[in-house]
Structures are given as structure tokens and as C-alpha cells.
Amino acid sequence: MMQEAKLAQLPNGRPSFTHINELWKKHGELIAALSGGLLTLAAYVLGLMAVPFCWILYPAAYLIGGYFKAREGISETIKTRQLNVELLMVTAAIGAACIGHWLEGAILIFIFALSGALETYSTAKSTNALSALMNLQPEVARLVSNNQETMISVTKIQPGDTIHIQPGERIPADGIVINGETSVNEATMTGESIPVYKKIGEALMAGTMNIDGSVYVRVTKKSGDSLFSKILELVQSAQKEKAPTQLFIDRFERTYVKIVLLTTGLMLFAPHFLFGWSWSETIYRAMVLLVVASPCALVASTTPAVLSSVAYGARRGILIKGGVHLEQLAMIKAIAFDKTGTITKGNPEVVRFMNSSSLDDSTFLSHVAAIENQSSHPLGKAIVTFTANHSAPVLPIADSIKVKPGFGVIGRINQVEYMIGKEQMMGDAALQQFRKENPSYNSDESETLVYVASGGKVVGMFSLKDQIRDSAAAAIRSLQELGIETVMLTGDNEKTASSIQKESGVSSYIANCLPENKVVEIKKLNQKYGHVAMVGDGINDTPALAQASVGLAMGAGNDAALETADIVLMKNDLSKIAEAVRLSKKMSRIVKTNIVFAMAMIAFLIAVNFLQFLTMPFGVVGHEGSTILVILNGLRLLRG
């Protein structure tokens, strides 16, 4: 049992430093970057006002603004024994200071530190995925031994143990039902929204939800061997894999830093001996080279474009967790969709009903809803919702309610008993008579049927179905117009999957997909198309979301899916996917243009410096001017 937390009073009314410490850990890098920028601005303004000793603010801006990036660069160099861009930026800033250009060096540090802080925020999002998954796994279970129940840690459960699972509890371990019966919501594992009836001898999966029955289960696997634990491993493994673009950037950075530092080192003495330059001219040219060759414009070529794209996407209901995901989305050739909760709404709805009783439709619906209102079953809730929209809002009083787990519910209205549930709950003769009296009714194979019986006769029937989203068909057409293949992955059977394919218009489907199967299919699609996106909403989709080049989650989806996904559709509007693809392609074009321009400008400034035509002020103007231009070009994405 969880102990009650106790609040401790702070001594002498002094504030606790815990909150400040947590704030610094979470936002320290951004605070340091902004502080360095403010110090730089203050030093510049005070310098214009001829305030004495204002130059002292520049070293402070260097130390505060560049602290995190310098520490990162030094520790990474020691760890990998490789030079990096962080060290190059710090060296360039120090070089600018050495020849009296403190302002330029401080600006370099500020821009680089700010981009690093924003990158940290983006990458930190993915670390929450595993914790969100873990929150769905029970920590304790009821171990039954010698007719006694004991609460123990899930990690201590062993195969062969007997555990007791009550209604409304999440199943803590894989096992077999040995006593009792219940309905289990397996949507977390299979994505299927309709609960599954479980009786003696049938298997239960860890992480699924026990709905309405009390069952005793013989454990078949250790906690670490369950399907749920495998999902955790799959997500963790997929998140460790770097995108090809990121690997290329890492290699480019190492090469670029080595070339610049080597060239600068040679510039410190080679021109003096080779071309007869004076020592002052040689050192001056080396410092100018270090400044103009710093990748400030390269950094700025992506960050403003990314932030503008993210801001525009947020206004349009598209939450993008980082520029790398938009870059990957621009290269997508195929998109895989989960069915339940993604293409469909995720909850069953009544699509039609039949009333063969002596009651009018309104009274019949109110009687059925009054009984189903006492049940927690999703099908019952759907019937109650349907009745609220088609009948009187006030329901009669129902009594003698008895829930039959996995079958249905029994209750009485005005001394008349009703049985409501699946066909196995009805008598064969009564069902045959009902079907004989209603020959015009043809059941869709994708629909779930709920029958109503009273007085030994079947007097009504409800057809329920998980309807496709209103935006699904149009969204899929838009993607196909962009040349993107659409594939549906679902845990449903072939017949249901085929029916949804016809309604939604997806190019193809793969049925009977458990979580590990979805990951395999995503890998196959990646091999076929090169870059594949995955759209899902549940915990069962998280491994595939992590494995795909880009993972997209529905805003109303499971927390684990929202954390694992790279892009979240906040309003559950599938049409936003095509809009995100168009935005990604535009961002990709702008970023590429910026990179080419920045590299060309750096090359031009380096060449002019070698020819001794470039002075430090003009070098700074060219370098910072190119930075401003690429920033302005990136900001165009604020308009989409």
C-alpha cells in the first residue's frame, strides 16, 4: 500500500533550493545562452555611450554564454579523441578577442550556444518515451499462495505462480486463466478496440486491461520476458539508431574542424616564410581566417528555418519535435497507418438497429440503454450514446442488473427482463426465428452484433462498427497525389482489414499484425522505399513509430505514442499529414539553399583573405551578413 506523503515545513521560512536546482538542470543551457546574449548587447550599447570599463562585460559574455558548449566540446574531445565544432567555435571567438574584436566573438558564441540549447530541448523529448511506456506496467501483483493473497513486486513473479486480477486492473504478467472469466481490453497490444472474452485456458498479455471479471491466472513468463517488455526493448533499440543525415553531419563536422584548425595553424607561420609577410600580417590573417571560417552561417542556415517551420506547424495543429524529422519527412516515399484510432475513430458506434418488439423505437432504445448504462463495456457505452441522440434523455430505472463477463448483461425494466449481448448468449431457436422474421437484414463482416432478448424471444439487434475518420479518405487521396504509397497495418483479421481498405482508399494493407510484426513490416517497407513514415495512436504502435524514419501520432492517442512519435497531429486530422509533407519539402529546399550559400560565402571570404584583400571589419561584415541573410531566408517559413 502506498504511504501517505508528508509535507515538510521549511526551516526559518527560507526558500528551498530544490526548485532552483531543477530549473537549472532543465533550462540551464538556454539561460546561459540568453544571459551571454544580454551581456553582449549591454556591452555594445554601453560602448556606444563611451561608458568606461564596459569591455569587462565581453569576457563575462564569453564565460557565461560559452560555458555549456565549451564543456561539451572538451568532454566530447576527451571521450572520442576527435575534434568538434564546439571547440572550433570557442577557438574562433578567442581568436577574434585576441585581435581586439570582442563583439564578433561574443556574437559567435551566442548564436552557437542558443542553437545548442534548442537542439537539447528537441532531443530530450525522446527520452520521455520509455518512462511513458513504463507507467503502463503495473508495479505490484496479488500473489496467491496457500489460499492467501500477498502484494509483491511484478519483478518477483515467476512462471508457475498464481496471481489474482480484479476488475479494472491492468494485467501484470503474461499468463493463462485458471479460474473465472472476464473481458479484456487488448488495445494496448493489438490495437483492437472491441474487448476480448477470456475464459479458463485462454492467454492474457501483460499491459492489457481487465474490464469486468475477477480471474486467477497462472503466470507463464517472467516480467522481463513478456510482450510488453519486448515493446520497451524495441523502442529503446530503434531510438538509438541515428538517421543517415545525422551520421553524415557528424562525419562532416569532424572533417571540417580538422581542416579549419590545420589551415589556421599553418597560417600562423607559413605565409611569413613562403610569401615574406610580416609576422603581424601573418598572425592577423590567421585570426581573420579563424573568424570567417567559423560555421556560424552554417548553424544559422538550419535553426531559423526549423524554428519557423515548427512555429507554423504548431499554428496549424502539427506539433513537430525537431527539424531532423521534417527533413526526413521530405524524403518519405510510403506511409504506414495503424487502423484503430488512426484511420478509424477507435471507438465502436451504432450504425443501425432493429426493433422487433411491441414497443416503439424510442421506448425500446431507452429500455436497452437503461440496462447498458449499468455496464462498463465499450459496446454498452456506444448503445447508451446512440440512444441519447435518438431517444428521450431520461432513462427508466433498471434493476436486477447482472453482468456476464464476455457475453453481455441482464436487467429488468418494469418487471420485464432483458438479455443484451452476443449471439452465444441467445438461444439457437430464438436466433433462427429472429433471422427468419427479418430476412432483409444483411450483416457486414466488419460489424459487431449485439442482440436483445426478452420473454424467450430475440426482439432486437444493434450493429456496431469502428467508423473511419471523416478526414481519412481525403487525406489518403492527398498523399497519393504527392506520390506517396499508403499501407494499413492492423491487428484485425483479413475481412475487417479489407473492408476498411475499401472505405479509406489505402493502397494496401497487412492484417494480423502484433507489435513485433509491425516493426518487421516497417523494416521491410524501409528496405523497399528507403524512407517510411508510421502513423499510430497506441502503445502497440510505439515500436513501429520508433523504427520508422518518421513517427506520427494522433493527438488523442496514448501518452507513450505521443512521446515516441516525432510529429503529433494535435487535432487528430489526418489531412494535416499532407500539409506537413509539403512544409517539410519547402523547409528542405530552403535549408539546402542556405547551406550552399553559407559554404560559398565562407569559401569566398577565405580566398579573399589569402589574397590579403580582406580586413577584419569587412570579414566580420561578410560573415555576419551571410548569417543574417540565411536567417531571414529561413524566417520565410513562418508563413508556411
From TrEMBL:
<keyword id="KW-1003">Cell membrane</keyword>
<dbReference type="Pfam" id="PF00702">
    <property type="entry name" value="Hydrolase"/>
</dbReference>
<dbReference type="InterPro" id="IPR044492">
    <property type="entry name" value="P_typ_ATPase_HD_dom"/>
</dbReference>
<dbReference type="GO" id="GO:0019829">
    <property type="term" value="F:ATPase-coupled monoatomic cation transmembrane transporter activity"/>
</dbReference>
<protein>
    <submittedName>
        <fullName>ATPase</fullName>
    </submittedName>
</protein>
<feature type="transmembrane region" description="Helical">
    <location>
        <begin position="595"/>
        <end position="614"/>
    </location>
</feature>
<dbReference type="InterPro" id="IPR051949">
    <property type="entry name" value="Cation_Transport_ATPase"/>
</dbReference>
<dbReference type="InterPro" id="IPR018303">
    <property type="entry name" value="ATPase_P-typ_P_site"/>
</dbReference>
<keyword id="KW-0813">Transport</keyword>
<feature type="transmembrane region" description="Helical">
    <location>
        <begin position="283"/>
        <end position="307"/>
    </location>
</feature>
<dbReference type="InterPro" id="IPR008250">
    <property type="entry name" value="ATPase_P-typ_transduc_dom_A_sf"/>
</dbReference>
<dbReference type="GO" id="GO:0006825">
    <property type="term" value="P:copper ion transport"/>
</dbReference>
<dbReference type="InterPro" id="IPR023299">
    <property type="entry name" value="ATPase_P-typ_cyto_dom_N"/>
</dbReference>
<feature type="transmembrane region" description="Helical">
    <location>
        <begin position="256"/>
        <end position="277"/>
    </location>
</feature>
<dbReference type="GO" id="GO:0005886">
    <property type="term" value="C:plasma membrane"/>
</dbReference>
<keyword id="KW-0812">Transmembrane</keyword>
<dbReference type="InterPro" id="IPR036412">
    <property type="entry name" value="HAD-like_sf"/>
</dbReference>
<keyword id="KW-0067">ATP-binding</keyword>
<dbReference type="Pfam" id="PF00122">
    <property type="entry name" value="E1-E2_ATPase"/>
</dbReference>
<dbReference type="InterPro" id="IPR023214">
    <property type="entry name" value="HAD_sf"/>
</dbReference>
<keyword id="KW-0460">Magnesium</keyword>
<keyword id="KW-0186">Copper</keyword>
<dbReference type="InterPro" id="IPR059000">
    <property type="entry name" value="ATPase_P-type_domA"/>
</dbReference>
<dbReference type="GO" id="GO:0046872">
    <property type="term" value="F:metal ion binding"/>
</dbReference>
<keyword id="KW-1133">Transmembrane helix</keyword>
<dbReference type="InterPro" id="IPR001757">
    <property type="entry name" value="P_typ_ATPase"/>
</dbReference>
<dbReference type="GO" id="GO:0016887">
    <property type="term" value="F:ATP hydrolysis activity"/>
</dbReference>
<keyword id="KW-0187">Copper transport</keyword>
<keyword id="KW-0597">Phosphoprotein</keyword>
<keyword id="KW-0406">Ion transport</keyword>
<feature type="transmembrane region" description="Helical">
    <location>
        <begin position="87"/>
        <end position="114"/>
    </location>
</feature>
<dbReference type="GO" id="GO:0005524">
    <property type="term" value="F:ATP binding"/>
</dbReference>
<keyword id="KW-0547">Nucleotide-binding</keyword>
<dbReference type="InterPro" id="IPR023298">
    <property type="entry name" value="ATPase_P-typ_TM_dom_sf"/>
</dbReference>
<keyword id="KW-0479">Metal-binding</keyword>
<feature type="domain" description="P-type ATPase A">
    <location>
        <begin position="136"/>
        <end position="236"/>
    </location>
</feature>
<comment type="similarity">
    <text>Belongs to the cation transport ATPase (P-type) (TC 3.A.3) family. Type IB subfamily.</text>
</comment>
<keyword id="KW-0472">Membrane</keyword>
<keyword id="KW-1278">Translocase</keyword>
<dbReference type="InterPro" id="IPR027256">
    <property type="entry name" value="P-typ_ATPase_IB"/>
</dbReference>
<feature type="transmembrane region" description="Helical">
    <location>
        <begin position="30"/>
        <end position="58"/>
    </location>
</feature>
